[in-house]
Amino acid sequence: MYSDLINKSERHLSVLKPFVIYRKPKENTVVGVFQNDDTLHYVNDFSKKGFVFAPFNSENKIVLLQVDEKIETLLDEINEVKQASVNHHNSEAQKDFHVALVKKGIEEIKKGTFKKVVLSRKLEVSTDKTPFSLFEALLARYENAFCYLWYHPKVGLWLGATPEILLRSENTQLKTMSLAGTKKYIENEEPKWGSKEIEEQELVTQYIVKALNSEVKQLKISETASIRAGNVWHLRTSVLGIMATKNLNAVINALHPTPAVCGLPKQTAKDFILANENYNREYYTGFLGELNFKEENIRNSNHKNRENQVYKTIKNTSSLYVNLRCMQLKKNKAHIYVGGGITNESDPEKEWEETVVKSNTMLNVVLD
């Protein structure tokens, strides 16, 4: 039962042992992965099995939760929760810094330093809610997102509800996406996209296709569509292909961090972010998820002139998500992370407002 999974997670937290509980988009199963000691394992070449938790800065180590125990349970019915209108006070100092940062980014774009840069900020709010009540609120509000609660005593406690896939793989088949552009969700209204959002989305798609060109064959690119993620709309394009090898290492290195969370060209945008944002992103805009899990498929074959036979196939699957719309819990504080893509058509005041809208995804569950 779902309550048993939560009880086990609470016990793990109380004795400072690593675990993660999560639900994939549009699914009704909650999964728990539990590690039986507090050893800090790291990913070397993406060949091991486990639940990965990767930082934004790809030069830093990626944490791997070891699967000592895995539990899957159907989610009990959770009452539908309406989107709240929260009124968190953003200080003028916060706004002034972010607007100035965006202006600086635009200046560098006009100089030709990069074409796009993703700039973010962190806000802190007090909360007396437990991690598990916050997780349940995420499940209730964001059924189309990957919702998770992740803990390691030597790293910290993080929660999130992200709409963006870094990649999904089944043996050598690969799926990824470009996700960019943001519009506030207004009930009964379809989003109207401007040139800024369309250009931003196209930059991300072009980068992904080029980055994967030497690692993935038979690339197929979908039509771009509008998708809703909580209280915002995004533009999304799916990219499918066949990996040249079964090793994800080269593919992940090519993708992360994507222009949707960093910029383009990647290295110059990343250098600007690390030098000019006034905080450490840590695991915000990193990635997380299942690495090299085994999935068993059983099917019956009933052909004429032969007995019924049962065929069993085992697939090696990975499902990794970009760590957007997330928060870190420290004592009675929720540290909420939010950002947006900056291009030469960006308006600094509007970019600030975009971060305010995006912050509601987490603020809705903390302050409601």
**Which word captures the global form?**
globular
Residue runs with pLDDT of under 50 for 5 or more positions: none
Let me know the number of strands: 19
Order of helices and strands: HEEEEEEHEHEEEEHEEEHEHEEEEH
Largest sheet: 10 strands, antiparallel
Structure annotation, total helices: 7
Helix content: 25-40%
Helix/strand structural class: alpha+beta
Q: How far is it from the N-terminal to the C-terminal residue, by CA?
A: 27 Å
| Computed CA radius of gyration, to the nearest angstrom | 21 Å
Q: For the residues shown, what is the average pLDDT?
A: 90
What is the beta-strand fraction?
35-45%
Helix-strand layout with pairing:
Blueprint: H1 2-14, E1 19-23, E2 29-34, E3 41-42, E4 50-54, E5 63-65, E6 69-74, H2 92-111, E7 116-126, H3 131-141, E8 146-152, E9 156-162, E10 165-170, E11 173-184, H4 195-212, E12 216-221, E13 225-229, E14 232-243, H5 249-255, E15 263-264, H6 266-276, E16 287-301, E17 309-322, E18 326-330, E19 333-342, H7 348-367
